[in-house]
Amino acid sequence: MSKPTLAVVGATGAVGTVMLDILTNRPDVWGEIRLIASPRSAGKVLRVRGEDVVVQALSPEAFDGVDVAMFDVPDEVSAEWAPIAVSRGAVAVDNSGAFRMDPDVPLVVPECNPEQVRNRPKGIISNPNCTTLSMMAAMGALHREYGLRELVVASYQAVSGAGVVGSDRLYDEVQALAGDRTIGTVAGDVRKAVPDLSESPFPAPIAFNVVPWAGSLKQDGWASEELKVRDESRKILGIPDLKVSATCVRVPVITTHSLAVHATFEGAVTVEAARAILEAAPTVVLLDDPAEGVFPTPADVVGTDPTYVGRIRQALDFPNTLDLFVCGDNLRKGAALNTAEIAELVAVEFTG
């Protein structure tokens, strides 16, 4: 049986570029890999698996003969084009937020709910938000053993989560402020020193600062990213009544999201037992020796695939609760890698 054909939609974007690197280094389960992007990117030549591939313009005909189509594009593009890909015979694996909470579209993390890839009445499988994804491998492993009941999460989100424009903004602000040693003091006004904030994807300066906001404003002062953490965690883990509260913060880091997680379980759980479970999880790396300065940071994690976990502690004054710190590359496992892993699960259906 021939290998299935894969299409990568949004191949020239930030996540799409990472996807091409991942496909080059993943198991060789695909036959043709077709690259699709907006008409302005059509004709570009990109390297995939050691071969030059010409980017095609997004059109219905581009999906003819495609078995699986991975979408790394904005919500509105996925909302329009994923159903078109399905109508041309492809299974769509979507990395946007367009379908995540659709009850007829599974939201999949292969470490947590791989069986859901076959439950796709609309022919679409959704990939979670990168913030939620950063903790799912660890939380899924602990939930299977102890039964997760409550999550309180503070995220420290990299600027690349806002796309290339987010990374460029941080670089521009750092360049504008470099050498000014008054910045951050009474004498240094960061808002006046950085480029025009009206052109920024962030509502406040991001260099030498943290911004307690990610996403758009929702009801009662919540940010959209915070509600995604709650709603997506419930759906992925299959716990519709999971209690979740999140505060999402943008930090001056280019790549890799971090989360401080306060997790409460149905029964008693010890630090030692949690460490053993996480060490056994194939996509989790445990870095947890604070006495020796060993714990995960974005600088350790960027460019790698696993979820990194450290600072595991028994929560003070809270029974059946652990506190831990999680890091995951938001462009790899947080987006491209998880999408590729979902697509590989679907590929098995074509190859037997």
From TrEMBL:
The keyword Amino-acid biosynthesis applies. The active site is at residues 130, 257. GO terms for molecular function: aspartate-semialdehyde dehydrogenase activity; NAD binding; NADP binding; protein dimerization activity. Phosphate binds at residue 100. Substrate binds at residues 157, 250. Keywords: Amino-acid biosynthesis, Diaminopimelate biosynthesis, Lysine biosynthesis, Methionine biosynthesis, NADP, Oxidoreductase, Threonine biosynthesis. It is an enzyme of class 1 (oxidoreductase). The keyword Oxidoreductase applies. Pathway: Amino-acid biosynthesis; L-methionine biosynthesis via de novo pathway; L-homoserine from L-aspartate: step 2/3; Amino-acid biosynthesis; L-lysine biosynthesis via DAP pathway; (S)-tetrahydrodipicolinate from L-aspartate: step 2/4; Amino-acid biosynthesis; L-threonine biosynthesis; L-threonine from L-aspartate: step 2/5. SMART domains: Semialdhyde_dh. InterPro entries: Asp_semialdehyde_DH, Asp_semialdehyde_DH_beta, NAD(P)-bd_dom_sf, Semialdehyde_DH_NAD-bd, Semialdhyde_DH_dimer_dom. Belongs to the aspartate-semialdehyde dehydrogenase family. Catalyzes the NADPH-dependent formation of L-aspartate-semialdehyde (L-ASA) by the reductive dephosphorylation of L-aspartyl-4-phosphate. This is Aspartate-semialdehyde dehydrogenase. It comes from Sinosporangium album.
